[in-house]
Design brief:
Elements (H helix, E strand, L loop, with lengths): L7 H13 L2 H10 L15 H8 L2 H9 L14 H8 L2 H9 L15 H7 L3 H7 L9 H8 L16 H6 L9 H7 L3 H9 L24 H8 L2 H9 L6 E2 L6 H7 L6 H4 L20 H11 L23 E3 L5 E2 L1 H10 L13 E2 L6 E2 L2 E3 L19 H4 L16 E2 L38 H10 L3 H13 L12 H17 L2
Parallel strand pairs: 1-7
Antiparallel strand pairs: 2-3, 2-6, 4-5
């Protein structure tokens, strides 16, 4: 691994500098030995880039990448630095990693989560906006939405949009069929839910049984079931406004109304009742939708963020008053430097209803709605020695098997989600409870205390337990009869071990 590239002590010093944000120390170490940028720790295999991205030290992230750090390097859990930045909401770091063409579609080893899942589960909507930038063209939103609208009730089959790379990325499911929309709805992040729906996330996506499945809600649950569990009224309203069904049953036979009652979300009952006549408000497009982001991101990748020096022949950027104008807004034609244009596209959260077409951002000079940027002629392409490989569409996204069509239930008013057989390609060899935000009891043993997997602890527990003989006799009976009927601790060993894996990786970063 990266430990072979130099003294281990120097590598640990670089890790400490990346964690603490000590730019001068990191620069001194990399000037002495640039190969230290590829160093990784012995325990969790976290690189200095993982530490800097998790802590939000954007200058050190840039320094490491310029010295040859692998932008797509994985730690022991298969998590990249992009996932760490999305977990903690450092959108500036996400922007920098995208400029160096990181792979946004990679999933971790534990539960198949992408960076989009990490951003959605913690409600980091700016990170979501950046992650989908390479999939959303800089074109009028009406023309895109006209070709990509998903039918509201989900019964009309798949259309052209659902075969697009954007839809495959947004609707990519982690273990158990959980999408980013499920997690944003569960945790009540309305802005994330609205943005994902504007990107045409599937409101009818259902979960399925998978080892440590979400038994508290049930397999076959839609994002509306998860929103009912979370209890956020606006999330339920926007899901219903975009075509979610109140009458969908999961595999436990529960409606979203039943889930709300189980979790004491009584304020949702008038809205989720199957015969409800509650008026659902009309929601405008998300204010975090940014159409020109793709164009300015590509310009920044090709020509860099450092604009040419100001001269008599060039105009000065009207925002920063320091750098020369290098991009022009289509429509009004006002010029900005590429750095200010990128910052504007990444941070603007003004409703497009007041400035122009949906998804546009206001020009800082005339308030005209901008949907795209173009570069000024004469800009020189930057020289780069970095690895520029961005896989926008990996095989798991482009060639994902379509689930079988669901057969209608006997009653026409209710549609019950039946979990179909799942291809083995979707399963990860090591799994755990997919998301820590929902506490799920992993053990269902009723024959005594749940035993640890360390040998010494097991023996000590058995010796001190007054039910030792009873446990031993029970174990002998289990060996005589054929295995399984119900899930036991031993069958969940891999799930618990994978949880300890992630804890080990995260404890290094948060030390």
């Amino acid at each position: 691994m990266g430990n072979s590239f130099g003294c281990s002590a120097s590598g640990e010093r670089l890790v400490s500098a990346a964690r603490d944000g000590d730019f001068m120390e990191a620069k001194m170490l990399l000037d002495f030995n640039p190969c230290l940028a590829k160093y990784s720790t012995f325990g969790g295999l976290n690189s200095p880039l993982h530490f800097a991205a998790a802590k939000g030290h954007n200058e050190i992230v840039t320094l490491l990448l310029e010295n040859g750090a692998d932008v797509n390097s994985r730690n022991y859990c298969g998590q990249t630095s992009l996932m760490q930045a999305c977990r903690y909401g450092h959108w500036e770091v996400v922007q920098t990693l995208l400029l160096f063409r990181c792979n946004v579609t990679r999933a971790d080893y534990l539960s198949g989560r992408t960076a989009l899942h990490f951003a959605a589960v913690n409600g980091h909507v700016r990170c979501i906006r950046l992650l989908v930038a390479d999939f959303v063209p800089s074109a009028p939103y009406e023309t895109i939405r006209g070709q990509t609208d998903v039918q509201g009730d989900g019964q009309g089959g798949k259309n052209k949009y659902e075969q697009s790379p954007l839809s495959k990325f947004v609707n990519k499911a982690a273990d158990g069929g959980i999408t980013a929309l499920h997690m944003a709805a569960l945790n009540g992040y309305f802005d994330c839910v609205q943005l994902l729906l504007d990107l045409c996330a599937n409101v009818s996506a259902t979960t399925f049984h998978y080892g440590t499945s979400m038994d508290l809600i049930g397999a076959g649950s839609t994002p509306l079931h998860y929103a009912a569990c979370g209890g956020n009224l606006k999330c339920c309203q926007v899901l219903l406004a975009r075509g979610a069904s109140r009458t969908t049953l999961n595999c436990n036979g529960w409606l979203p109304l039943d889930v709300a009652r189980m979790w004491s979300r009584h304020w949702l009952e008038p809205l989720l009742a199957p015969s409800s006549d509650t008026v659902i408000p009309v929601f405008p497009p998300s204010k975090y939708l940014s159409l020109p982001l793709m164009s300015v991101l590509n310009i920044a990748r090709e020509y860099g963020l450092q604009s040419s020096t100001v001269s008599d022949e060039t105009d000065t950027c009207a925002v920063c008053l320091e750098r020369a104008c290098s991009v022009a807004a289509e429509g009004c034609g006002h010029g900005l430097c590429v750095r200010c244009a990128l910052y504007l596209c990444s941070t603007c959260n003004i409703s497009s209803e007041t400035v122009g077409p949906p998804g546009s951002i206001p020009c800082p000079l005339c308030r005209h709605g901008i949907t795209s940027f173009t570069k000024f002629p004469g800009s020189s392409t930057k020289e780069t020695k970095l690895q520029m490989s961005l896989g926008l569409c990996t095989p798991c996204i482009l060639h994902q098997c379509d689930p079988d069509s669901q057969s209608p239930a006997c009653t026409p008013d209710f549609r019950k989600n039946r979990v179909v057989s799942v291809s083995s390609d979707l399963f990860c060899p090591v799994t755990c409870s997919p998301f820590p935000s929902v506490a799920i009891p992993l053990c269902t043993c009723n024959d005594g205390p749940c035993l640890s997997f360390e040998t010494g602890e097991v023996e000590e527990t058995l010796e001190n337990s007054p039910r030792r003989s009873q446990i031993i006799s029970t174990e002998q009976e289990k060996e005589e009869r054929p295995r399984l009927e119900r899930t036991t601790c031993s069958s969940m060993f891999w799930g618990r071990r994978s949880c300890s894996r992630e804890h080990q990786c995260n404890s290094e970063i948060n030390a």
